[in-house]
Amino acid sequence: MSEAGVWDRLAGRYDSFVRLFDASYDQVRERLARDLPTGGRVLEIAAGTGQFTAALAIEADQLLATDISPEMVGRLRERVREAQLQDVDCAVMSAYDLDAPDETFDGVFCANALHVMDDPARALSEFRRVLRPGGVLVAPTFLHGVDSFRRALSRTLSLVSPFVAHTRFDLASLEESVASAGFEVVVAQRLPGLFPLGYVVAKPLVESQEQAPKKIEEDAP
Ligand SMILES: C[S@@+](CC[C@H](N)C(=O)[O-])C[C@H]1O[C@@H](n2cnc3c(N)ncnc32)[C@H](O)[C@@H]1O
Fold it and tell me: How many domains does the chain have?
């Protein structure tokens, strides 16, 4: 089944399922307000049913919220309409092939999706392409590879449920993937949860940049 097809089938159950794992979602909502540029154009990738869309809409002048699954986008549109969010467009879009010119967005936000994608490197390279110089990527991602317990839990989940982690990141390998796509990682923090969240903030690397800003790396309380 295609990547979109898998998520189309899950869309109706997603909101109840995500409650098992959303211990750090409120922290992410607070942090994205601090870490994304205020105003400007923001692209949300893999928005799902819109867990973060309202928080992003407050920060952005214009928000384009996208997902590969038409069913997810249907529910996302409903949520945007019900919450009467202003200046938010929704679209079906694959992270591997973003329908946007180079250097279009001031911020790109992708929550809890890099680990479920077949090809996160391709997605990250697209995020890099559409970000303006000086723009910001915020990519909180579930870490299924932090220890042997989580790796075993992740393997079991993929056998008994449709939620499959294609990449079992720990914080270091998540950072490395983001950096390999041409980003400078400026924040990498582990937030608590059944599967911890790797909260990563990164900026497109500028060749002339000689010194990286000091990175904050710590376990958040
Ligand atoms: C675990 S859900 C995350 C949804 C939401 N961001 C959240 O944090 O609750 C993963 C989402 O990624 C989307 N997705 C998977 N592969 C994708 C791709 N290649 N491009 C865009 N979206 C994708 C799925 O349709 C699904 O909505």
Answer: 1
CB 87 within 8 A of CB 73: no
Find out whether 138 and 32 touch, Cβ atoms under 8 Å.
Answer: yes
The letter for the amino acid at 47 is A
Residues near 205 by beta carbon (within 8 Å), at least 6 away in sequence: 182, 183, 184
> Is the Cβ atom of 189 under 6 angstroms away from ligand 1?
no
Neighbours of 74 (CB within 10 A): 15
pLDDT digits (tens, 9 = 90+) for 160-208: 877 889 999 999 999 999 999 999 999 999 999 999 999 999 999 987 6
- Kind and range of the H or E element at 28? helix 25-35
Confirm or reject: Cβ of 163 under 6 Å from ligand 1: no
Contacts of residue 214, Cβ cutoff 8 Å, sequence gap at least 6: none
Question: Residues 6, 99, 165, 135: is their CA dihedral positive or negative?
Answer: negative
Any idea what the CATH number is for the domain that residue 72 is in?
A: 3.40.50.150
Please report the atom of ligand 1 found closest to the CA of residue 163. 1
Q: Which domain holds residue 188?
A: 3-219
pTM (predicted TM-score)? 0.93
Output the CA 116–ligand 1 centroid distance in Å. 7
